[in-house]
Protein 1
Amino acid sequence: MPRKPAYDKNALIDRARDLFWKQGWAGTSLKDLERTLGLNPGSFYAAFGSKDALFQLALDKYAEGGTKRLKDLAAEHGALGALQRYPGLVIDEASKPAKACMLAKTVLELKNQNEPLAARANAHLSSMENLFADLFRDAQAAGNVSDAYDADTLARRYQSDLLGLRVSAERVGVDARAIADEIAERMAELAYHTDD
Amino acid sequence: MPRKPAYDKNALIDRARDLFWKQGWAGTSLKDLERTLGLNPGSFYAAFGSKDALFQLALDKYAEGGTKRLKDLAAEHGALGALQRYPGLVIDEASKPAKACMLAKTVLELKNQNEPLAARANAHLSSMENLFADLFRDAQAAGNVSDAYDADTLARRYQSDLLGLRVSAERVGVDARAIADEIAERMAELAYHTDD
DNA sequence: AGCTTTCTTGAGTGATCGCTCAAGTATATA
DNA sequence: TATATACTTGAGCGATCACTCAAGAAAGCT
């Protein structure tokens, strides 16, 4: 008996994610969302409940996308290959709403104003870091990374390097590509444990 | 004939900087500022003109403070010593409003909503990077860093590493101290140009 | 003391914020 | 075709936003 929604909810979340990613939490008003999603206030609230709730969906979708891209990369190029290519990939694609990581932007913006959302973003960052650690372990098992390193330590540093890269990529006048290449090079050097 | 202001404008800018640093641009309302500065709307606007103008003053003061701290460090411990100590210093001091860099937070938050302020923050980041490069050159002149490296390249990477460190330090459950130590260690390794 | 000049006060501006809800419209079943 | 059940519309809610300004208070000068 009922009537079907005139929109594809999943596609709307994608569009909302891109808008939030580019403009941040406070920088995105409901008017912006209504315009971008083609929804009137009533439909918006019927579909998502609140700005908070939609932001959380967007955050989850963002994280899911990042995880998928990295796993695909590993499936095609192996663990080390993925870790080498990922930095270049995240700052690539001019089509993307922003270079900086949406999760990092969210933690920085909302840590002192919306703890639940900041905590969720932080949790996503942690599971990405766990995925990095898994890949480093895979690379060690494959003999591409020296066993003398601790995979969790490598992952922590890799995550930090990526975050720095992506902040740098957001800046004007910084050659982020060069930084991405340096991070990739370092991955290749991990085969041999040289010092300390 | 006139009456003197009841406040020390310079001290107010310090307090405003700390509030903006912690809460960001949109997260800091005029009510927040009035409360923190102990100023009524009229006095606020007589003193600073606008939220924008005060934020700019805060940004400049923040950058000036960072520059001074690094130069002091270099005067006491030499160029390489300063570069080694700075990462630990910026994530230290529990008294600080935030671990993350206020300039980076500003670029990320305001790039698409307040270009002038974002550009100013970015310019401050660039001059910090120039200062890093100068220190690397000093360290090379002192024989502490191999001449095989390009100082500007080292500075670009150092800046990116610092930004990543400071985003990481803002996260919950990340051992930022360990990352800072790794960055410092890498400085010591620059004395010898090993490969590539 | 008296005058001038500035600073301080705080109620109040229009605009925008996230959000609500009653009324209207479209669709799937019977 | 009639009815039930959503979905859509959009005016408008109270709260808050950055900001203004007229009136009053205080300090430096003569």
Protein 2
Amino acid sequence: MKTVTDPVKVDEFLSRAVEVAYPSKDFIRAKMLRGERLSMYLGIDPTGPTLHLGHAIILKKLADFQALGHQAILLIGDFTAMIGDPTDKMALRKKLTKKEVLTNAKFYKKQASTFLKFSGANKAKLVYNSKWLSRMKFAEVLELASKVTVDQMLKRDMFEKRMQESKPLYIHEIMYPLLQGYDSVAMNVDGEIGGNDQTFNMLMGRDLSKTILNKEKFVISTKLLVDPSGKKMGKTEGNMVSLNQSAQEMFGKILSWTDELILPAFELCTNVSIVKIAEMKKMLEAGANPKDLKVRLAKEIVAMYHGASAADEAEQNFTNTFKKGELPEDVKEVVVEKGAALADILLREKIVESKGELRRLIEANAVTEIENNAAIGDFNYKIERAISLRIGKKRFIKITVR
RNA sequence: GCGCAGGUGGUGGAGUGGUCAAUCACAAGAGACUGUAAAUCUCUCGCCUUCGGGCUUCGGGGGUUCAAAUCCCUCCCUGCGCACCA
């Protein structure tokens, strides 16, 4: 397999969405230009059933790497997921069971296939780290642990912070970077890619590769999609876009993102060229309505996962729903007996969490009938005829009578 | 093992016998304004309610009291200090 050595393409790979590279970009560039076929992995712990847009950024980078003719490896951290990566978590994460982890992992390959090719020439490898981690003997673990000092490990800011705040920090949590680092050794890879929140762990793998294999593993850390307050997307509830969401959900969520995210998102989440993104930046500076670009962004992203026509539909649907106040296409529909109490239906359909919540919503005039845009003011409202309702901004239901 | 400090709502963190469903901040939801947003303003934010009130909550269990998140006992958990270390 010949690799791509076109300097322009190599440079694009090494710059777009990349935050830092270790030991340096030049080090990696030199190898790539020389035509060396490299292997690089991305590790994801299967802690939830879906991948989100944040994962997509690095998956895309890994796919770019594959497209350049190199060996891409997707590592499912089924073993490490059970320990829980302490990244960003002030409290320790609940440990997942083997079963949960495997169920989650199952969905990952499918979702990752949007980017990575797992068949054909130069196919990506899919590996699980339980393959080696679960088989390690305690003596081997100790041997591994002897490569790193406590102080080196505690340099990780999250650990430091917890110590300072007198919060519990467990041994198995301190061990986490070691295990992740060992993945690099076990796979004997040339490099690793991950979000910059993974830098510490990735560098641990780099250190271990050097110590144990005498190998100079490179590390590429990518930019994260963060909101202006610095929070990772997905952290703030509601704005996380899962890769398996419907076109309409995706579209709506992206449009509700804050404007500051438009340009970074274009760079990180789409294939729109750097040149075009620079043009957009100028447009914004010249006073263009950010909304138009955001719509373009949303369509661009939706199209990646659902196709261009679905993206157009999503836009149309969004306009109808939120601009014209019509019912969305994927509205929940229920059939009820004549005279049924609205409160019971909404509670049963989990549109509201409690009757108290509905009471508040009705008092705030948040429950309106779509057809005539009239607020339902009566908590004891009974369903006598087919009716479509909007509750707040985002909740809809279509009720018909039997 | 001993001593000290703690364990409160999605989070941080008040409250140390009654006026506590529990100050406040953040997060969240709704309304207004908008561009779908952001910012801003207003409201809400345990569950049920015939809107009078009722019910269940402050690590678990037990107790004292007319009355406990608040006092006592006990168990579990965390942090810190001390001791132990053949």
